[in-house]
Write a structure and sequence with these properties.
This protein is an alpha+beta fold. The protein folds into two domains: 84 residues, Phosphorylase Kinase, domain 1; 123 residues, Transferase(Phosphotransferase) domain 1 (Transferase(Phosphotransferase), domain 1, Orthogonal Bundle). The protein contains six helices and ten strands, in the order αβββαβββαββββααα. The strands form three sheets. The protein has a five-stranded antiparallel beta sheet with strand order 1-2-3-5-4, with helices on one face. Strands 6-8-9 form a three-stranded antiparallel beta sheet. A two-stranded antiparallel sheet has the order 7-10. Helix 3 packs antiparallel against helix 4. The two termini are 31 Å apart. The mean pLDDT is 88.
């Protein structure tokens, strides 16, 4: 998909950086003008080697995921490709999923999150990073939008694809259970309560948790 946006057009718009680019990560920024706002993910700030080996591959895979999810509820609309390093998606007005949200809003959002995740899975897409609350935005009406499909995969109908899909979609659902357990435990059913207990035990035993925090600190990912 293409768009009439280009670098020259971006330079005329107001820019608000959400995540600064680095040698290892793409920049994510909101651009806004008279026609409204959109989010641009741009891997041009990455080190040339990392951009060639990793950045552009991830960008192209994420674009393909948005194509798979076109029209799906709770997924930002794809705006278009800017150039070989960047693409744009719809800007979603919302708050990060958090405890301070009003109880009716939070309960509705968590219920909607489960529905949106089921919609991803109906198209055989797994997000794989739904335990990060920054990837779930709550709109004023209580519906949610899932963002950042950088880690997402589309899995086919072959034997290996079916096996991986059955395994990996559990990871997405574990993210939903995590948020219910943390913010609204009264919404958990018996099976989800059991899953939440298991996840807490596994999380406490996972040996790479501190190492992951260290890398996020080194490379600016919070």
């Amino acid at each position: 998909m293409t768009t009439d946006l280009d670098r020259q057009r971006l330079a005329t718009l107001d820019k608000r950086v959400l995540r600064g680019g680095s040698a290892f990560e793409a920049e994510v920024a909101v651009y806004s003008g008279a026609e409204g706002g959109f989010v641009v993910k741009d891997c041009s700030p990455m080190h040339p080697l990392m951009r060639a080996l990793f950045g552009r591959r991830v960008k192209n895979r994420e674009i393909a995921i948005y194509a798979r999810l076109e029209g799906a509820a709770g997924v930002p609309d794809f705006v278009g490709v800017i150039d070989g390093d960047a693409f744009a998606i719809e800007y979603v007005e919302g708050q990060t999923l958090a405890r301070h949200l009003d109880r009716p809003l939070l309960d509705g959002a968590l219920a909607n999150l489960a529905t949106v995740v089921d919609g991803l899975h109906a198209r055989r897409v797994v997000h794989l990073d739904l335990k990060q609350k920054r990837n779930v935005l709550v709109r004023p009406d209580g519906s949610v939008a899932i963002i950042d499909f950088e880690s997402a995969l589309h899995l086919g109908e072959g034997i290996l694809g079916r096996a991986l899909f059955a395994f990996l979609k559990k990871r997405d659902r574990a993210g939903v259970v995590k948020f219910k357990s943390k913010y609204a435990p009264h919404l958990l059913d018996a099976g989800e309560e059991k899953s939440a207990r298991r996840e807490r035990v596994l999380g406490a035993l996972w040996p790479f948790k501190r190492l992951g925090r260290l890398f996020r600190g080194l490379f600016g990912r919070k």
